[in-house]
Amino acid sequence: MQLALFDFDHTLTTRDTYAGFLRRIATPEQLARAKWNVAPWLLAYRARLMSAASIRARVTRIGFGGRRLDDVYDAGARYAAQVLPGLIRPEMRHALKTHLQRGDTVVVVSASLDAYLQPWCRAEGLELICNRLESRAGLCTGRYDIADCGPRKVERIQAQYDLTAFERIHAYGDSGEDKPMLALAHARWYRGRRIS
Fold this sequence. Notes:
Layout (H helix, E strand, L loop, with lengths): L1 E5 L10 H9 L2 H19 L5 H13 L4 H14 L7 H13 L2 E9 H11 L2 E5 L1 E4 L2 E6 L8 H8 L7 E6 L5 H5 L3 E4 L2 E2 L2
Parallel strand pairs: 1-2, 1-6, 2-3, 6-7
Antiparallel strand pairs: 4-5, 7-8
Helix pairs in contact: 2-3, 4-6
């Protein structure tokens, strides 16, 4: 039995799906506010003064705080069906198909949201580890239900799977947050290139 671990954004996809989902569901007021708030954070991130996890937490608070959870999940299901299929890299679709045909356990491990990843993974026959929105009385708090998955991918993988049960582990990633996950694997792909 083998395990295949795939990061989602920029590994399986051609672009960031979290930002795309936020733009799709944001109100005009939220979009206007985000332009002023998020731009300095992006500059700080590019200058390596702020982590991706820090930006995600802030953007999640602005984009989802106070929204009805059911509305977010309805929008996520539409996004999964209408947008995500067109963003999957052909070579990654082939890799997914190959692992599934061999009978491997295939898991998407992502800092993106289950609102759209869960319906997409279910349709593709994939397992999922990712961020989920916290809610109270049906409204999003603007936080995750548990700590951000991005910097905790290995911890979340080990909590869900007994890695010693797999004869071989494959991992695919594209960022610094993926490197610890790649280190778990016998076969590693980074930004589309095999590195071991």
